[in-house]
Structure to design on (542 residues):
């Protein structure tokens, strides 16, 4: 069995007094695609942010490439970040730069490559995501799907060992979403990199995952291969997979108490 | 009775007022500490990686163009008219004393020591301080700051350092221009309504001015540049979620910058006066 490239042990993250993640334990192994699945507000995006060091754990640890992110120096954190790529939900392309400059930025800042080489690499990355010829466009001139693709190209710029995706197909039409799924599958085949995808899109998740983690209310509800998850008999997992809405027939007295508490 | 009400009921008005003063003071000190930390980190990145391979220099030049060069037309217009206004107001009093020849000196000293730097700073706050806050605030909302971090780029070194370097260089340049335009405004009145010849006004201005009148303005302007950049960027980094908070940060950046610039101006004026009373 290959060594884990990412592991979390009892990971807790809080915003002020509110704890969002209540002790998460899982691993991502080399070359594996792990999909973190969960509903809105389940804590999956917070988990992703903690995995790349954008959120400080209030407890537990996140270990990436044998380095604990919470206890490493800024230099060590930068060294790890140079080996990862993150595609943000909204793209997060720098609006003051063109698409090409966005992709070239990490290469310009962290490598000694000649400008002409960087230009070639930018074209290669854009070609990989199906955006050839768009290097001179500004991010504001791109559609939602194109922005996501450009963000993936930027995430790929440094040939990362680990690639993270935050809601890669959210807000896209089915054809565009299928295109992004296919792109992730192609990247997996071509580079055998470790991929972590956070999503709530079931179809995408089952298509691309080697292993799935279901998060609910800040805790891991289920973990396993797509087949194991599909065959799960856990009530909450079934509710999520079968798209059943939460029951609205709560105790009426409790419901009323919610509105009148503290008054 | 709610917990808040029970605390209020137990606390006397005097204690509550003191607690309010304490909390306010703590907030102000935390804010100033935040500004100092931002300037410190930005300066450190300027020293540690001095304009790394020219790219930071490129960004600084770009910022200098935006914040400095493009401010020239509006600064020209405003300080020119301020110069005319000072000359008119001065002439109003000096004419009764039969001392119209002092108008040129009055304009020159008022503009170089006070109004030139102050007007330039206020224009720069309106144009650049607000834009720094809006730019960084919007980047925070759209996760661009997080994107920089995940690319192992320090947002302070990437965004603040070039702005700070540009402002430290451009503010004194703008103030020199502002001084010149203010004096020209005074000269317009002096020549057309004050009985001066153009050459005579120029000579009267030079005789009234000492080098330190100009240098005190330039020293102040450099500090103004640092403060305007720090407040604009700090407000940007402090932006919460949503477009509304970007608007709030922009407003705060302008209001706080103007307040700090006036307070710093007061401190400098007091310092210069105390150091050489009567001069």
């Amino acid at each position: 069995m290959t060594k884990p490239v990412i592991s979390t042990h009892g990971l807790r993250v809080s915003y002020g007094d509110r704890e969002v993640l209540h002790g998460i334990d899982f691993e991502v192994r080399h070359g594996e695609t792990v999909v973190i699945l969960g509903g809105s507000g389940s804590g999956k995006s917070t988990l992703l942010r903690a995995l790349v060091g954008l959120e400080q754990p209030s407890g537990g640890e996140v270990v990436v490439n044998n380095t604990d992110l919470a206890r490493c120096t800024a230099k060590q954190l930068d060294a790890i970040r140079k080996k990862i790529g993150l595609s943000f939900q909204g793209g997060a392309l720098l609006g003051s730069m063109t698409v090409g400059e966005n992709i070239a930025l990490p290469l310009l800042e962290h490598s000694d490559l000649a400008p002409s080489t960087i230009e070639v690499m930018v074209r290669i990355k854009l070609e990989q995501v199906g955006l050839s010829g768009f290097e001179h466009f500004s991010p504001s001139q791109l559609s939602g799907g194109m922005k996501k693709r450009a963000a993936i190209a930027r995430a790929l710029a440094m040939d990362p060992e680990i690639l993270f995706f935050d809601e890669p197909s959210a807000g896209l039409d089915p054809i565009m979403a299928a295109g992004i799924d296919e792109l992730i599958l192609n990247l997996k085949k071509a580079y055998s990199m470790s991929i972590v995808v956070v999503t709530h899109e079931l179809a995408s998740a089952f298509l691309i995952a080697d292993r799935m983690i279901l998060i609910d209310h800040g805790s891991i509800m289920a973990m396993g291969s797509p087949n194991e998850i599909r065959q799960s008999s856990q009530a909450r997992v079934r509710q999520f997979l079968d798209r059943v809405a939460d029951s609205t027939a709560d105790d009426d007295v409790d419901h009323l108490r919610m509105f009148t508490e503290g008054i | 009775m709610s917990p808040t009400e029970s605390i209020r009921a137990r606390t006397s008005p005097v204690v509550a007022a003191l607690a309010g003063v304490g909390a306010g003071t703590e907030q102000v000190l935390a804010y100033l500490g935040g500004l100092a930390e931002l300037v410190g980190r930005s300066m450190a990145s300027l020293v540690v990686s001095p304009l790394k391979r020219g790219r930071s220099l490129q960004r600084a030049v770009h910022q200098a163009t935006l914040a400095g060069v493009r401010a020239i037309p509006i600064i020209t217009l405003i300080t020119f008219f301020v110069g005319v206004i000072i000359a008119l107001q001065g002439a109003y009093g000096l004419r009764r004393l039969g001392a119209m020849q002092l108008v040129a000196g009055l304009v020159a000293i008022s503009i170089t020591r006070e109004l030139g730097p102050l007007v330039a700073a206020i224009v720069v706050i309106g144009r650049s301080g607000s834009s720094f806050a809006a730019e960084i605030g919007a980047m925070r909302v759209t996760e661009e700051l997080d994107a920089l971090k995940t690319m192992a780029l320090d947002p302070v070194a990437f965004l603040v350092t070039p702005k700070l370097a540009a402002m430290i260089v451009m503010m004194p340049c703008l103030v020199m221009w502002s001084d010149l335009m203010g004096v020209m405004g005074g000269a317009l009145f002096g020549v057309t309504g004050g009985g001066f010849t153009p050459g005579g006004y120029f000579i009267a201005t030079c005789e009234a001015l000492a080098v330190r009148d100009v240098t005190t303005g330039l020293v102040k302007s450099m500090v103004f540049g640092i403060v305007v950049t720090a407040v604009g960027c700090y407000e940007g980094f402090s932006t919460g979620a949503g477009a509304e908070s970007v608007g709030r940060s922009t407003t705060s950046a302008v209001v706080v910058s103007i307040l700090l610039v006036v307070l710093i101006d007061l401190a400098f004026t007091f310092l210069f006066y105390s150091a050489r009373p009567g001069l």
